[in-house]
Design a protein that fits this description.
Elements: H1 2-17, E1 19-23, E2 29-36, E3 40-46, E4 49-55, E5 64-70, E6 74-75, H2 79-86, E7 98-110, E8 113-122, E9 125-140, E10 148-160, E11 178-190
Antiparallel strand pairs: 1-4, 1-11, 2-3, 2-11, 3-6, 4-5, 5-7, 7-8, 8-9, 9-10, 10-11
Length: 191
């Protein structure tokens, strides 16, 4: 019985050492951007996702970001295109309902510029990705009735859709192989 209590106490203690930050989905967005016909940018965003941000250090130097995205929530503002994106040739949401990212490092470069490395999984294929991050904060919430610290994040990076078997038969003259990723988010931590 003492062992069970000790294990439970150590688990609770270790969990309390890591701060959990909560995403404000009303102030956050996960966007993908491609070039269409080689002349214009076309973007889409995901409506449904979960984000976890944990850090032991106040400066978030040991932050771990984890994002799970519902692939079928893609929205490009055109239903016909969204249905195509959800189909077997592109995201194949029936077989691969989620996309996943987990960070492996978060390092300060200078000022509010950071570098984040991690692994992204699309259609069951996991590849490393490097993201450039701008982090504003942590700062106290300006609303005096809310006792919380806040940060704002903008992370940008690039992948090749062909690396994840997305649109294999789709020529890059129609839709670029390079896909820009842009994630913006506002997070808070209760004091």
């Amino acid at each position: 019985m003492k062992k069970v209590f000790l294990i439970a106490a150590l688990t609770v203690l270790s969990m309390s050492l890591f701060a959990q930050w909560t995403v404000d989905k009303g102030q956050s967005k996960i966007t993908i951007i491609v070039t269409h016909h080689g002349i214009s940018e076309l973007d889409g965003y995901f409506k449904k996702y979960d984000v976890s941000l944990t850090a032991k250090q106040d400066d978030l130097s040991d932050a771990v970001f984890e994002i799970t995205i519902e692939a079928g929530s893609i929205n490009s503002d055109l239903e016909m295109r969204d249905n195509s994106l959800k189909g077997e040739d592109l995201f194949n949401v029936a077989k691969y309902p989620t996309l996943h990212f987990i960070s492996t490092s978060f390092k300060k470069k200078q000022g509010n510029e950071y570098s984040m490395s991690g692994n992204i999984t699309i259609k069951g294929i996991t590849k490393p990705i490097n993201l450039d991050v701008i982090m504003n904060g942590p700062v106290a919430n300006p609303n005096k009735n809310v006792k919380a610290m806040q940060i704002g994040i903008k992370a940008t990076g690039k992948i090749k859709r062909s690396d994840f078997n997305v649109g294999v038969g789709l020529e890059s003259a129609f839709v670029s192989d390079e896909v820009q990723i842009r994630v913006t988010g506002e997070f808070s931590k209760n004091l």
